[in-house]
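PROTOCOL LOG
Step 1. Enter all chains and additional molecules of the complex.
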Amino acid sequence: MQETQRRRTGVGTGTVSLLVIFTVLCLATLALLSTSTAASNRRISQRSVQNTIQLANVQGQAAQKLAQLDTALLALPKTEDDAQYYTQALQAAKNLGCEGDAAQNTVWFTLPITETTTLITKVQLLPPGSDTRYQMVEQSSQITGEWSPEQGGILWPG
Amino acid sequence: MKNKYSGLAFLAELLINVAVFSAACAILVGVFSDASLLAKKTTRESLAMAELYTLTEIIKAEGEDALPGAAVQADGSLLLTYTEDWRQSSQPAAYTITLQLTPTAQKGGTLTDIVAVANTQTGEEICRLQTAHYRQNE
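Step 2. Run joint prediction.
Step 3. Record the structure below.
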């Protein structure tokens, strides 16, 4: 008598469950990573937006200070002596909290943007009789915070 | 008999697996859509702020006349309209930028306060930028 061996075909009882569990775990991991990446990008973007808002704000304050400087320069007594004019102009600028370089007749001031960056605005004083009182030389943000390197760590010797 | 019960067990297992998978998919689709919405919001905010800053810099450098396509509103503010990908367009806009310029005469020139606001089509404010510019009288 030949026994017909029934060959077991098809999927085992637990196989489908394992596949479903594996698929759900993969999808869940992917979903969590997507959310984490989006949240991280949002934090970076918000920081960048805040920095831009802060920079524009400080640039506005710099414009107000330039207006005060211009008013002070216009209030100086008329003189034909350029050296005397520049001396008075630099003094007027210092009275407004600006710094000056008598050799180059430049005036500058700094305004804080963040804890580690400042906006420096530098203008060149023009001789009396010019169309304008000063000319913008530079307006840029500079890093003032110190970089403190992390101690330790293992570097590849190369 | 044994075959009948094993067949029923297999069917029951399949049904449970389908139910679990459906529930998991329903939850995960929500998570994916939240991530997508967050990414879109981030992109929108970044592009809006970049455009606002660019416009304020153009105004500071060359004045408000240098803004092509800016429509002057009744209150004197400038209105610019943008498509979904932040390209300037006169078509029905996805986004708008309003520029409010307030000049104040000073002794030696004009100090102009600039307020730039980006809004969505529905009027929701995306971001706002405030700055000023001083132009000397010649």
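Step 4. Note key features.
The beta strands of chain A are 99-101, 106-112, 117-125, 134-143.
DSSP finds two helices and four strands in chain A.
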